[in-house]
């Protein structure tokens, strides 16, 4: 048996809708992209949804549109995918890393105010692996300090915090449509906001700074007149091919999320009994969308003296699981330990200890739509039989 960490399973309707788009002759950003944006807004209850080429692009455009300037500081969790920090660097800003709560893998809100300076302009909370960050204190701090909030909701489709969908708390939310996410367009991203003026600015920036899209021009009274360009923008447009695939998947969004929840519940039912493995955090105020299933491996107490030994033990176990056909991964990386950031900011792994622990001692197990019951049971059996 070979079980991948993730797998994209397309249904007949997905292929049919993409084929229809190809046959239509209109492949660039058009009606299917707009339809996807409308479906996204209906699901998340955001006033505006704007499609782009990736979540990384989404964050970059949002920071730019809100007014991020060279030298500005942004607070970023040290445990996240690298793009959360990279967009700040690309705009000439300074990344201010903040440690995480090891229980949730998300930003430790008790550490935020310690990181704020006169140059702090943004907080980028991440809803990691489908679990919302603790947004109430983040928004309270941001309002009190006049700081903008850009939610990295790359993993957050279907995730709720106190009955509201992630990506609707801050100034903007940024989602990923990568194949490892619940809804995919191959590559792609989505921006959500309730700010009309900000939405208009992002729309212009994603389309070379044009005041009119190609579709608007072609359907207008004078399609032969080119649009004016009022900003120095980018080409961050999603194609209608991607839009068609996304629209098809959104038709079964609730079913997709329910299936992922059932798989996670199967895991939790058995793995919660293991004292040496912490399963994903759950709480009545949160709805976890289970973009993945990250656990903390702790065969013994993890501290500064034992962390490297625990990491070696985890890696040996991951190799053993791989040998019997079960793919696993570290949950993600501690960005401050990666060469670019550790060298530029002169950082040591222990500087953000819990992020370092999460990087070296986490393990994610297979979770994807279409994962069979026999495969789930095979994974559970081999986890439970692990000898420390």
Helix content: 25-40%
Low-confidence stretches: none
Summarize the main sheet.
Answer: 7 strands, mixed
Tell me the strand order in the biggest sheet: 1-11-10-7-6-2-3
Mean pLDDT: 96
Descriptive overview:
The chain is built from 14 helices and 15 strands. By secondary structure, it is of the alpha/beta class. The protein has 2 domains: 12-250, Aspartate Aminotransferase, domain 2; 253-384, Alpha-Beta Complex (Aspartate Aminotransferase, domain 1). The strands form 4 sheets. Strands 1-11-10-7-6-2-3 form a 7-stranded mixed beta sheet, sandwiched between helices. It has a 3-stranded antiparallel beta sheet with strand order 9-8-13, with no helix packed on it. A 3-stranded antiparallel beta sheet has the order 12-14-15. A hairpin with a 4-residue loop joins β4 (100-101) and β5.
Keywords:
single chain, 388 residues, alpha/beta, Aspartate Aminotransferase, domain 2, Aspartate Aminotransferase, domain 1, seven-stranded mixed β-sheet, three-stranded antiparallel β-sheet, 14 helices, 14% strand
Walk me through the topology.
Blueprint: H1 12-24, H2 31-44, E1 48-52, H3 55-66, E2 73-77, H4 83-90, E3 94-98, E4 100-101, E5 106-107, H5 112-115, E6 120-123, H6 135-145, E7 148-153, E8 160-161, E9 164-165, E10 172-176, E11 189-193, H7 196-205, H8 214-219, H9 240-250, H10 253-271, E12 277-278, E13 286-287, E14 293-297, H11 307-323, H12 339-344, H13 353-361, E15 362-365, H14 373-384
Parallel strand pairs: 2-3, 2-6, 6-7, 7-10
Antiparallel strand pairs: 1-11, 4-5, 8-9, 8-13, 10-11, 12-14, 14-15
């Amino acid at each position: 048996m070979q079980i991948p960490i993730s797998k994209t399973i397309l249904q007949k309707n997905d292929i049919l809708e993409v084929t229809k788009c190809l046959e239509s002759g209109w492949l660039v950003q058009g009606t299917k992209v707009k339809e996807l944006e409308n479906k996204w807004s209906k699901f998340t209850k955001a006033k505006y949804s704007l499609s782009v080429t990736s979540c990384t692009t989404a964050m970059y455009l949002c920071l730019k549109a809100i007014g991020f300037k060279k030298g500005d500081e942004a607070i970023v969790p040290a445990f996240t995918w690298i793009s959360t920090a990279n967009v700040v660097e690309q705009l000439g800003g300074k990344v201010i890393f903040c440690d995480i709560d090891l229980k949730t893998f998300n930003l430790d809100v008790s550490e935020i105010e310690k990181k704020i300076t006169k140059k702090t302009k943004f907080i980028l909370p991440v809803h990691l692996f489908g679990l919302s960050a603790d947004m109430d204190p983040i928004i309270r701090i941001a309002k009190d300090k006049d700081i903008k909030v850009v939610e990295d909701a790359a993993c957050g489709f279907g995730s709720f915090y106190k009955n509201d969908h992630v990506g609707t708390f801050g100034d903007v939310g940024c989602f990923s449509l990568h194949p490892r996410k619940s809804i995919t367009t191959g590559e792609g991203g989505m921006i959500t906001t309730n700010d009309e003026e900000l939405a208009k600015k992002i729309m212009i920036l994603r389309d070379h700074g044009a005041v009119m899209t190609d579709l608007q021009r072609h359907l207008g009274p004078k399609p032969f007149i080119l649009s004016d360009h009022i900003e120095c923008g980018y080409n961050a447009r999603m194609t209608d091919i991607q839009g068609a695939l996304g629209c098809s998947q959104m038709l079964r969004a609730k079913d997709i999320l329910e299936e992922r929840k059932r798989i996670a519940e199967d895991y939790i039912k058995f793995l919660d009994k293991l004292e040496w493995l912490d399963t994903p955090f759950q709480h009545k105020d949160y709805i976890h969308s289970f973009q993945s299933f990250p656990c903390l491996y702790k065969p013994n107490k993890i501290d500064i003296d034992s962390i490297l030994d625990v990491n070696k033990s985890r890696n040996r176990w991951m190799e053993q699981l791989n040998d019997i056909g079960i793919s696993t991964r570290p949950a993600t990386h501690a960005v401050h330990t990666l060469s670019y950031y550790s060298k530029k900011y002169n950082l040591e792994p222990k500087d953000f200890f819990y992020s370092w622990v999460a990087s070296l001692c986490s393990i994610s197990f297979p979770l994807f739509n279409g994962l069979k019951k026999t495969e789930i049971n095979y994974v559970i059996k081999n986890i439970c039989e692990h000898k420390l």
